[in-house]
Fold this protein.
Amino acid sequence: FMKYMEKEIQNLMENSLVYNKGESIILIHDHRYQLIADLIVKYCKEKDIPISCLFTNYQPHDILPSKVKSVFLGEKPEIIILWLSHNIWHTPERKIAKYQKKKRLVNLLHPNDPCPYYLADIQKMNKIGKQLSEILKESSKVHIFSNNGTEIEAQMAIRFCETGDYREPSSGGDFPAGEVGFGPVEGTVKGRIVYDLKVQHVSFVKNSPHIIEVKNDEITIIRASEKFRQLINQDSILKYLSEISIGINPIWVEVNDIDSIVEEKNLGTVHFGQGSNLSYGHREGAHFDSVIQKPTIYLDNCLIMKDGRFNERYINLKI
């Protein structure tokens, strides 16, 4: 596991963030990732890269600690690495740090399981992401189907592309990376979704697909586990669909860590975010993601994916 992590840290620092002399970096982490935090510090010392660490016990629904706020809102550091059990990405302060303070941020998703995502080819994902982003830019509506019964539509608002290339100011996202998506125009998501791969904080659902109906973004449960019901009852905002994204990472990964959702990056999947959308919208609160396999996707009337495979007419995976 630690050998995987050493290679992933190397990929993160040398191909994703690409440190520039004179920049300052801070790593914000909790107790779960102490050993991995030590590896990042070790790497930076060996490369003569200045880095500091901030430990936090942040829990869902906590007020963001003042020390974390000052990191987001201050002029320094220029680079922020987040490695936490509970996501603080969907917060107003993080949004300010990225878009107003023009910081470079990365939210590390790696679970406590061996995972070959360190092999992720950021340049290749960049090329796929740019092709798909160009199509999204010219499209206004999405229709998504699956053989298991998904049939959903929405109008597109703010688009985003996260390929792991976080070299420029105001860039950042998850790592391992690999998704292109959008925040739907509020009130336009409707239809049925059959989650048939994994639901974050619940488990894999291949053998027990979870089915929801959506109207004006709000979900109604048709069939789901008690754990899923308990999850969405934790916060009323979790009953609203707020993100639709397409995975573009060619390395297929599945891990048993239920709190991780690295599967959302897998090429040939679509994931839906429920809850907060502060990166591109106005809903504030908790957020979780759920993944479907082998989708068929239309952007306007353009068939870009059929049963999990990109239409080569529009997306060239070989470039």
Observations:
- The two ends are 32 Å apart (CA to CA).
- The chain has six helices and 19 strands.
